Batch of 4 targets.
Target 1
Amino acid sequence: MKFTEHTKLRKEKFGTVLFDTLTEKIFISDEIGADILQLIAQGKDLEEISSKLSQECDADKPTIEQDVLEFIDLLKSDNMISECGRACVL
C-alpha cells in the first residue's frame, strides 16, 4: 500500500495530519495513528505494521492487526492510500 499522489503528510506534536489536495479533506491522527502512517510511508505491509506495533504496545497481535486494518480501511475509503504491488516505488 502507498499514499496516493494527492495525499500530503505533516507530523505534528499530537500526531500526523493528512491532507487530500484534490478534495481538501483533512485527516488527523493521534500518536499511534502517526506510527501507522510512518510505517506505511516506509512501505511496510499490514503484517509488518501489526508486528511492530504489538511489540511496542505490548498488546496481542490479532487485536492490533484488526485495529490497523480498520485504520487502513478508513484511509482507503477517503482515497488517501491505495493498494500497491511489490514493485511499487514510494
Target 2
Amino acid sequence: MPTLNRNTQGGKSLATTLAPRTNRTGTGQVHSNWVGVSTVTVEYLVVAGGGAGSGYGGGGGGGFVTGLMTAVVGTQLTVTVGGGGSGASGNNSVFDFVVGNGGGLSGTAGGSGGGGGGTTNQTSPAGGTGYGNNGGATGTGANYNLGHDGAGGGGGAGAAGSNGVAEQGGNGGNGRASSITGSAITYAGGGGGHSHKNGGGTSQPSGGTGGGGTGSNYNYGGTPSTGGTNGLGGGGGCASDSGGVTTGGSGVVIIAYPSSESAATTTGSPSVSTVSRAGYRVYTFTGSGTITFQ
C-alpha cells in the first residue's frame, strides 16, 4: 500500500501521494484513489423526520446519526432533509453517504420504532454512530378488541418508548442531545401513546424530550394529541382511538468545521453561523440542498 505524505496548508490536509477519501460503496467502505487533493474534516448531525402517530401508538423519533467525515475540497455533497410522516413513517435525511432513517409509524420499524411494537432499524455509517430505539408495546385493557387499550409510546433516539399498561398509555422515549451548534439541543423524541380515559387510563402520555408529540387521553371529552416538532425529528403523539393521525416533525442536517477553513458554497439556503460555536462555522439545513467545501 502506498505511503501517505501530508503537508498542512491553511488548516487543510494536502495528500501529496494519495488522499484518504472518497469513492465509497453502498456499505460505506472507502476506496482511496485521489491524488494530490485537499481535504477538510467536518462534524455532522443527521436527524430524519419523525413518524406519525395513529390510533394504536405514538410515532417513532427520526434516526439520529452523528460523526466525522473527511470531505474533498471542491466536491459537491448532497443534503436531504426528511419531512415528518403524515399517516406514515417519517422520511430519511441524508448527508452524502450518511443516512438517518425516518421514524416509524405506530407499530412500524423506523429510525426509532413506532409505539405498538415497532423496532429500530437505524444503522451506523463508517466514521459515525446511529441511534434509535424500539417503541413501547400495547397494553391489553378490558376494551382491547375495540382498540381502547393503552397504546405504547414511540421510541426516541435516547430511550425506548414506554409500554402501555392495561388502558394507560406509555410515554414517548426521550431523544438524544447534541452540542454541534454550540448549545445542547435534544432531537428525535418519540410520540406519546394513548390512554383510554373512560376505561381506566389516568393520565395523558407525554412525548419524549426532543420534539415528541403528546399522546391522547381523548375518549368522550378528553385531551387530544399533538404532532412532533419540526426541525427536531420528533414522533407524532398517538391519535385518539376513534381514528385520525398526527404528523411527525421534520428532521435537520447540521454540519460544522473550524472557522479557520474557508466558507463553503451551498444551495438550499441553510442558516450559517460563525458565532454560535466559538471557532467553528455551523451550517444548519432545514430543507434539502448541497454543500461544497473550499
Target 3
Amino acid sequence: MKTISDLKQIIQQYDIAFDQTTLPASLLGYYEQDDTTSYILLSDDIRFQHNLPRVKCVLAEEIGHYFTCIGNNVPYGSNGYHRSLMIEKQENKAIKWAIDYLIDTDLLLDFLSHNTLAKISDIADFFQVTEDFIIKKLELMKRKDCFWQLRDEIYLYLMDLPTITIVDIWDPDFYEYLDSY
C-alpha cells in the first residue's frame, strides 16, 4: 500500500519543488512546470483539516500532473470553453494516475476477496484514501470489465456503483437479478 512517504520519495527522486502555501479557496493543490523546474503547491487549508486520506489523494493527483502532462498544455490565448476542456482533460489524466498509483487493482481485489461485506468506507480506510477515490477506481475498473474474479466462483460485480456487489456466479438468485436489467 502506498503512503505519504512514498509520495514524498517521488517528489525528491524527480526533484519536484514542493511547498505549502495559501491558495485560492477552490484549490487544494496546484502543479506547474516551467522550462527548468516542476512545482507542486498544497494549500495551507488542507493541513488544518487533519484529513490524511485527503492530503494523500491531493498530493498524488498533483504528482500525477508531473507524469501525465508535458509542459503547460493549456494554450494561454484559448477561449474559455476550449481552455476548460483542456484543463479537464489534464485533471482526468492526473486523477487516473493518482488512483492507479494509490489503489493497486490486485490488492483491491485481494482485500475484497477476504472482506466480502466491505463497504466503500472500509476500502477507503484500508487504502487510506478518500471514498471518492475508491468510487473512481471502481468506475475505471468497470470501464474495462463489469466482472472481476475474487476467488473461484466469487466475483465483484460493478454495474450498481456506488454499491459494491459480490456474487457467486452459480447462485440462481444472481441470474434472476441479471434478468431484471
Target 4
Amino acid sequence: MQRSQDWIPGIPYVSALENAEICTVRPEQLDDLDRLCEIDAVCFPAGIAYPREYLSSLLSSPTSIARVAVLDETIVGFAVLEVRERALKKVGELVTIDVLAEARRKGVGQLLHASVERAVSHRGGNKIRLQVSVENEAAIRFYKQLGYRTRGRIPRYYLNTIDAWWMEKKWKDEPKS
C-alpha cells in the first residue's frame, strides 16, 4: 500500500541526524501496520492511542499521507496526515506524529513533519491543523518550533477529560520546514 504519488521527487529519502545516525523516511507500506500500532501504544496511553482497525482504515484512505522513519533497519516513528477540502482549499489535518523515546530529540520528528508538509503542498494545500493535549508540553514546544500557532482550546477533547490546543501552520507556496 505504498502511495508513490505522494512521494515527491527532490525530497531526500535519507538524512543524517544531529548525531550522524542515518534516518530514512519513506511512505508507509501494508506490512508496517503491526509496528505502527506498537509504536502508537508506547507513545500514547490507552484510550488515546488509536485502535488497530482505525489506524488500518486511516492508512488505506486515499486522503491520507503516511510516512515512517527508519533507523538501523527499524521503524522508530511515523506520521499520518489527512488532506481535506475546506472552503475550496486543501488543508492537512495532522492525525499523529509518533516517535519512540530513544529516537526523540534527534530530528526524526522534524524529518517526518517536513515530509508530510511537502506532500500537503504537492497536493495544493498551504495549511496544516492539529490538536495536541494541553498537558503535552514537549509536543506543544515541538509544534511551535515548526511554526505552528495556537488557534483555540478544545474542552475535554481527550478521554472526555483533557483539553486540547487547536494549532495551525500556514505557508505561502513552499513549506518552510
